[in-house]
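Researcher: Please translate sequence to structure tokens.
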Amino acid sequence: MPKKKKYYVVWEGHQPGIYENWPAAQAEIKDFPNAKYKSYPSLEKATVAFRNGWKKELKNKGRKMPLSNAPYIPHSLSVDAASSGNPGTVEYQGVWTHNKEQIFHAGPFEQGTNNLGEFLALVHALALLDKQGLHDVPIYSDSRTAMSWVRNKKVKTTLQRTARNKEIFDLVDRALAWIKTHPIKNRILKWETKKWGEIPADFGRK
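Model: Translation complete:
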């Protein structure tokens, strides 16, 4: 019995649209943080779904988004942050993915958040690899929030600036200035925790 044809809707990806085969759709979501997509049994249903938008189509469906099929890349750098409290004391680090050798570490910083630490870790990694000319080395992060902040070059935090967290916010300002004046040459990839376990840069405090 021939396999039924499916149509793939990509709402959020490199090039949103409707695709007639999985390889074509997969290419549009690969390495795209928090991609939104779903398959449909007919072009008519896919067209309606694309017009409806992912918020309506995926809302309350009780369906988890499929895991990415992107391969694990050992020759890469992994970053992570740890926060004791929210807000609380924050630190972050970057390690080589294949052997967990620490490449950089910063902190502790007072009265910060884990998201700010994850963001700073990503930009620190980008700046370091850019300085060393290692533009072919991808960076793994398990924080979709931090990845979106880097992608949009904007930090959306509700944390208020105070004298106690001045140090971490000064770093955030410097990081924003850097990504706004430097092209991002390294790929930033989502670490698939469910497939690969904790990210190598994890502080092990969960």
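Researcher: Any highlights?
Model: Residues 2 and 134 are 47 Å apart (CA to CA).
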